[in-house]
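Justification of computing resources. Each target in the renewal requires a structure prediction run like the one illustrated here; the chain below, 178 residues long, is used simply to show the kind of job we budget for.
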Amino acid sequence: MAIAAVQLFVPIAMGAFLWINHEHLGEQDFKGKYQAMYKDITLSKQNKWAVFLFPAGMIHQWMLLLSALVALDCSGIQIVYLLNLNVLAIIFYGSIRSHIDRRRRTLEFFNNSMTLFISYAVVCMTAFNLNQASIYENGNHFGFWLGVIFVGNIGYITVDIIGKRRSQRKDKEKFDLR
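Resulting structure tokens:
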């Protein structure tokens, strides 16, 4: 239990630290020490909530794990909690528009949406599905969504690597022309 308390305390402490030091996040010496908490995040005065993406993501993952403990005797409430928590994560991420790169925002939105779809697929494989013959078919759907996540992320990584190599070639060509 103490480990769980510490792991919940860390993102809350990170969030408090980022909120208190929001004015200094853009300074070079501050970035050198603490940029890992907010790398590739938009730092603007209009969007102060963007720096909470990493701590909020950690808390969201813990809340997903703890969803099994919410209302132990009433699994219907657990399922509603699980699905609504995923929907709220998508809404939170969409509202803060935290990443600088549009492709990165699209990937994060894609991954959050896939988490919602996988949660729904898992629910379809539980006792709430009264048609026992379709549980095997729902397992196939679960595998399909895992495949979509895998292909989507590998595709993003591939496009990102190709883009970086192209920009390196262009930079090298510019340097060679001088």
